[in-house]
Amino acid sequence: MVAANSYIKLVPTSTKESITTEELKDLFWYFKEITGKTGDQVNWDYNDAAFPYEIKEKPEGKGSWFYLLSDHDRYNAILLGIGKETIKKEDGTDRDQAYIQVTLPENATFGDKGKANEFCRFLAKKLKGELHLFNGRVMYFYPRK
Predict the structure, then answer these.
(1) Is residue 60 in some structural domain?
(2) pLDDT by residue (tens digit) across 125-135?
(3) Domain of 29?
C-alpha cells in the first residue's frame, strides 16, 4: 500500500483551536475505552479486536507525533501528528489553523486503513472539525452557516 494521509482540521467553530499530542493520546484512550464497552454489552472480549493498537513514541517525535503499533496479523501501524498551517481568510488576512495528520505508512494494511478511518471520524466528530479523508473527500462535523 502506498503511504496516505488524512487530516482533521480544527476550524474556528471547532471545540478546540489547537491540540497537543497528550490531548490526542487521551482521546485515543477514551476511544479504546468506549469501543471496549461495546464488547461488554454483547458479552464478548471486543476490546482487543476493536482497536488493537498501543501507543509508541520515539524521542525525536516527542510533542509533535507518535504512532500506534499493532501486533495482530491483519494490522501494522498508524502515525498521528499535529501541526499548524496558515489559512487566508475571506477578508484577505491570515490565520493559523491547527490540524491532526493521520498517516498510513507504506507497510500499512487495509485493516489499518479501516481502523484509521474509524478513528479519524471519531476525532473529527468529537472535536467538531473538518475531516479530509484518505480518498480526498471532505466530511464536515462542525456547524456551518
Answers:
(1) yes
(2) 999 999 999 99
(3) 4-135
Q: What is the pTM of this model?
A: 0.88
Residue with cell 501528528: 81
3-state SS track over 16-36: CCCCCHHHHHHHHHHHHHHHH
Residue 40 located in a structural domain = yes
* Cβ atoms within 10 Å of 58's Cβ, excluding its own: 9
Q: Which residue has the cell 480518498?
A: 135
3 state DSSP class of 50 = helix
Q: Distance between alpha carbon 15 and the CA centroid of its chain, in Å?
A: 15
10 Å Cβ neighbour count for 37?
A: 12
Which amino acid type is present at position 57? E
- In the chain, the number of structural domains is 1
Instruction: Establish if 85 belongs to a structural domain.
Output: yes
The pLDDT tens digits of the residues spanning 107-143 come to 999 999 999 999 999 999 999 999 999 999 999 998 8
| 141 inside domain | no
